[in-house]
Amino acid sequence: MYNMFMSYLEPRKKTLTEKQQKFLDCLVETQGDPKLAAELAGYSGNHQQVLKSLKDEVIDLASEVLARSAPRAAFKLIEVMESNRPVPQANNKLQAAQNILDRVGVTKTERLNVNHTSSGGIFILPEKQEVVEVNYEDLNNEDIPD
Known about the structure:
Elements: H1 18-29, H2 34-41, H3 47-53, H4 55-82, H5 90-103
């Protein structure tokens, strides 16, 4: 069974059994219900054990699902922004769309303007000279000019 969300499973060190692959496919089909996905894949008993053994693959799958939802989230932001009519639950939809975009790495960028506009040229300082310490008590009154 081929699932468009499973394209993330590139060749890895860990090879999945047919049952494990079926569990991941069913996880997408059941929209993330691990208990039902385990039953459909043929696992009996505790589905938590299956999740634990496929933790990395499930995380990769979730990232892939979010990445595939990112374009829809971006268009939802634009739709709510450009709507002339009131949008039911607009704040919730905006927040959900923004969370999806943040999680897949589409965030607002902050730019810092580092352009320097100076009308003057380069100012060259004289060479530094060594500082000579003078003890005030060693000075005679005659050495001090009036």
